[in-house]
Amino acid sequence: MKDIYLDCNATTSVLPAAVAAASAAMAHGYGNPSSTHGTGLQAKAMMDGVRLLARRLLGSGEGRLMFNSGATEGIQTAVLSALCALRERRDAGQRIGSLLLYGATEHKAVPESLAHWNRLLGLNLTLRALPVDTDGRHDLAVLAELIGDAAMLCTMAANNETGVISDLSAIARLLEERGAHAYWMVDCVQALGKLQLNLAATRIDYAPFSGHKLYAPKGIGMLYVRDGAPFTPLMMGGGQETGWRSGTENMAGIAALGAVLAALDDGRTFRSPAELAQWRARLAASLEAALPGIVFNVPFALSLPTTLNFSVPGVSSKELLDLFDAAGVRVSSGSACSAAKALPSYVLEAMQVPAWRASSAIRLSFGPLTDEATILAACARIERCGEALRASCLLPSALAPLAPLSAMRDGVTALGVDGRTTWLLTDAASASCVIIDPQAALVPRLAAFVRCQGYAVRAIGHTAPAPDQGAARLALREALDALDIEQLDAFDAQGRLAFGAGLRRIDCGDTQVYLLGNSFAFTGALDAHVVAALLSPDLVTPDTVLCGSRDDGGICATVRAALAPQVTPALQLEAGGLAAWLRAHPDAIVVDVREAYEQAACTGLGFDGATVQRVPLSRLAGEVAGWLREPQRALVFFCRSGNRSARAAACLRRLGHGAAWQLNGGMAMAASAPRPLSMAA
Ligand code: PLP
Question: Are 454 and 478 within 8 A, CB to CB?
Answer without folding.
Answer: no
